[in-house]
Amino acid sequence: MPTFQSLGLKEQFLQAISDMGFETPSEVQEKTIPILIERETDMVSLAQTGTGKTAAFGFPMLQKINAESRTTQGLILSPTRELCMQITNELIAYGKYVKGLNIVAIYGGASISDQARKIKKGAQIIVATPGRMKDMIGRGMIDISKIEYCVLDEADEMLNMGFYEDITEILSHSPSDKSTWLFSATMPKEVATIARKFMHTPIEISVGTKNVGADSVSHEFYMVNARDRYAALKRLADANPDIFSVVFCRTKRDTQKVAEKLIEDGYNAAALHGDLSQNQRDLVMKSFRTRQIQMLVATDVAARGIDVDDITHVINYQLPDEIETYTHRSGRTGRAGKSGVSMVIISKSESRKIKAIEKIIQKQFTQKELPSGMEICEKQLFHLASSIKETEVNHDIDPYLDGINEVLTEFSKEELIKKVFSVEFTRFYNYYKNSKDLNVAAGDTSMGSEGPSIRFFINLGAKDDFDWMSLKDFLRDLLQLSKDDLYKVDVMDSFSFFNVEEKHKELVLHAFESFKLNGRQITVEISKDGRRKGGGRSGRSGKRDFKKKGKSFGGDKPKFKGKSRRKNQRPNDKGTGGRRRRR
To answer: Where is the composition biased (Basic residues) (predicted)?
Structure first.
């Protein structure tokens, strides 16, 4: 078994490792550290989240820089403020015995002048987010013209967040002969482009298989009607009393909405998304790390800074658009040698997405049934019994025992047990006694948002620069509907169709009574033969809207241009007046 001593690290770093309690290096550390210490080379290292990548590049950089010089010699770029601060704190811990070492974190949401002062004092290593780094270089506050080492950490996520141009601009101010180390969980084409453009014959280190999920994580999915998604989330939480989880939603709006509903229903929950102030984000993360929050509801971007080893469950309240993102999500659990569970809540119409993810992560999902109300009551009762059994007695209670015994003297042991446990049992029993079965059988032919629905025609289409996703978002924001309330969006050249449940019919008609967009009257009408059970159209193949091109669940989503071939015809649900994209 390899040891840190065998990797070529100096004694001062081995002492720091011992202080932190690390015993053996992870696979990525074992493969990466010796090469980076011994050679001046570029490197691409592919490893999943939570495998110890910070130490893999941190120790070699610390060992190779000159701490006696005030010149900036190392630059580390990371996608989020939280990750930037996390890397900085870890490097400081690794280099605690290096005299004169100064590591500075550069990120948005903090005073740029304070950060500039810290840099001016002399920082051998800068850890930065791309946006703030580009800004400070542009203002002449940072000089990276003499750096010897550059790390692109979580490179795939930085590119997903749109930082390609920022990274390109930043690296243009650095020496061409520096060593560039790229660390990423996945290797999409954008990351490969960065490697080709800024690296010279890099060594590639791969831990496991590209995009493959960790062995310590099991994958489950629960199939429900789309409108029962939130009820399913509550059952999963109640069925796992010790849950310590991250719940992923697609949008900031859904994240906030789900978190607020959980809090209203008595759960220790909070939202983490880009609309929070930095102080709010810090408070949320502090509460989560100290377990005051059991369910952190987050967007994918906001969750990049989460580095907590004891997360028991990742719950995909909504699946991501990009397949690779699922790998990042599930990597939040099953860390530091512990096991974890990644749960997915899906509707019938999303079942094919599970197959696509299985192909990428090379792991099988298990379809599970949501527990019944009585099963949850049983789990909660036995959890309470275990908690009582493991509770340490506080002997400060001793002076009050005589009085308590006097109050309860008329009850037998069995009666006391019934009374104590009835407190918890009654709460769950009253909630679940009339609960329905939320599970949708695999062979059930019902679709997504169940019940009668209305199909609408709207005179907006591809010529108005809409594709199915942008039109869906536009309508949701305008009508203030959730993701599952509006569906089956078909975009054609000059018009489109969409479905809502029948209960939202008047809301839609009223919203467009006198609505104008760019000075043009927008009309909405109920499509001919538009009232259909489940909103589906007859003879559908079931293969709509899911192409793997670009590894995106929604396919390429092009914005079609040009005029409809039947511009003057009033189309119905079966019209062919243009090319269509459906969702």
So the answer is: 560-569
DSSP 229-270: HHHHHHHHHHT-TT--EEEE-SSHHHHHHHHHHHHHTT--EE
Span between the terminal Cα atoms of the chain, in Å: 52
Task: Write the CATH number for 78.
Answer: 3.40.50.300
Do 280 and 403 reside in the same domain of the chain?
Answer: no
- The length of the chain is 583
Instruction: Report the alpha-carbon distance of residue 319 to residue 337 in Å, rounded.
Output: 26
Domain that holds residue 517: 452-582
Residue 43 binned pLDDT confidence (cut-offs 50, 70, 90):
very high
- Please state, in angstroms and rounded to a whole number, the distance separating the CA atoms of residues 147 and 175: 7
> Tokens standing for 332?
């939040």
CA distance 342 to 221: 8
Range of lowest pLDDT (128-137, 175-184, 197-206, 332-341): 332-341
Closest by CA to 226, choosing from 437, 451, 436, is 451
Q: Which tokens belong to 59?
A: 């120790």
Cβ(216)–Cβ(338) under 8 Å?
A: yes
Domain count across the chain:
4
What amino acid occupies position 181? W
Residues 274 and 130 in one domain: no
Per-residue pLDDT, averaged over 175-194, amounts to 84
- Assess whether 164 and 298 both reside in one domain: no
CA-closest candidate to residue 380, choices 243, 247, 232, 269: 243
Cα(229)–Cα(276) distance, integer angstroms: 25
CA–CA distance, 192 with 228 (Å, rounded to integer): 41
Concatenating the DSSP letter of every residue in 40-105 gives ---EEEE--TTS-HHHHHHHHHHHHS-TT--S--EEEE-SSHHHHHHHHHHHHHHTTTSTT--EEE
pLDDT of residue 82: 81
What is the rounded distance in angstroms from the CA atom of residue 4 to the CA atom of residue 23? 8
- Indicate the angle between helix axes 53-64 and 27-38, nearest 10 degrees: 20
Provide Rg for the chain, Cα atoms.
28
Same domain as 279, residue 260: yes
Provide the whole-model pTM: 0.56
Q: What average pLDDT does range 444-467 have in this prediction? A: 74
Locate 521 and state its tokens.
Answer: 């009257």
